[in-house]
Design goal:
InterPro entries: DDH_dom, DHH_sf, DHHA1_dom, Oligoribo/pAp-PDE_c-di-AMP_PDE. This is Phosphoesterase RecJ domain-containing protein. The protein is an alpha/beta fold. Helices cover 39% and strands 19% of the residues. It has two domains: 197 residues, inorganic pyrophosphatase (n-terminal core), CATH 3.90.1640; 124 residues, Roll (Diaminopimelate Epimerase, Chain A, domain 1). The protein has eleven helices and twelve strands. The strands form two sheets. Strands 3-2-1-4-5-6 form a six-stranded parallel beta sheet, with helices on one face. It has a six-stranded mixed beta sheet with strand order 7-8-9-10-12-11, with helices on both faces. Helix 3 packs antiparallel against helix 4 and helix 4 packs across helix 6. The chain starts with a helix and ends with a helix. The relative contact order is 0.10. The structure holds guanosine-5'-monophosphate and manganese (II) ion (2 copies). The site of one manganese (II) ion has 5 residues, from helix 2.
Length: 329
Amino acid sequence: MKNNNWAEAVNFLQEGDRFLVVSHIHPDGDAIGSTCAVASILDQLGKSYTLINASGVPEKFAFLSHSKRILTPEQVREGDPFSRVVAVDVADAERMGDIEPFIAEDGHILNIDHHPTNDRFGAVNLIIDHAASTTEILCQLADELGLTWDLILAESLYTGLLTDTGGFRYANTTPAVMKLASRLLAVGVDAAGIADRTLETMTQNQLQLLQRSLDTLTFADEGRIAWMWLSRQDFIMTGANENDMDGIVNYARNVVGVDVGILFRETSTGDVKASLRSREIVDVGALAQSLGGGGHARAAGCTLRGSRNEVERRLLDQVKQRLREGSES
Ligand code: 5GP
Ligand code: MN
Ligand code: MN
């Protein structure tokens, strides 16, 4: 045991029963991979549990065995609220969506996460911000619990590791990550198959959404900032949903000379969700947090209120200022 948190997390899982396992809304591969990995861990511990995600499971992660058991709030049958909750890859409680009715008043949350902006909302917090993915933390937790990495667990762990490192390309791709990936492949994980499903395959809806967003691509600050917009109309016309936006913001960030890429999206509530990606100068996690959101230094997001012009100006002013500060230091 490296410190208290590991022991507390182990106790939380070993001593409790009837867990609710939850991740963040609009789940990515780490969110679903972590939820499924905790299910495997609880299976091995002989515990009962319910898996929930306020947004459901994107089709591309449906290959993970336990994902079929992830329920939307509407699908959870009436019953006592849960007194033991495991939140994975969730930076703040709000990111779980509307699942409060399922948590008992005296309920305890085990908060396992790698976001530097995590606000430690759990009764027990296992926050390792140098971990590349939440599943990297779960690899170690499974070891601490003395469990076997069977194929179903390994596929879930690998999916989080693969997707949160952008296919082992981002700066969080450490020797530790590669060692874990190697161990997971040795269990029999189909690396090519998972990469194809989660990183390469696009639906027609997604491609049409990309097409529309590229139409709005705009540059500022001598090409150091690039941004795009997706309106409600874009989603209606393409039949796409919010899960189909995955990866689109990278097209802005990837342009040569760009440090910060942004995708603005009008939400159904009339707000604007901004996804931010940066190359090396601006810490977009800190920027997003200053605007009520959060994330990592290179990938973050926040929700803003106001007209299209106002929101755009407010965020771009912040980015420009931080680019200036970053370039000076
Ligand atoms: P994305 O742009 O893909 O939605 O999110 C990128 C990263 O920022 C993810 O790690 C995600 O968890 C985090 N993130 C995005 N939006 C928010 C937000 O509104 N609040 C917080 N705390 N984190 C966010
Ligand atoms: Mn995530
Ligand atoms: Mn993650």
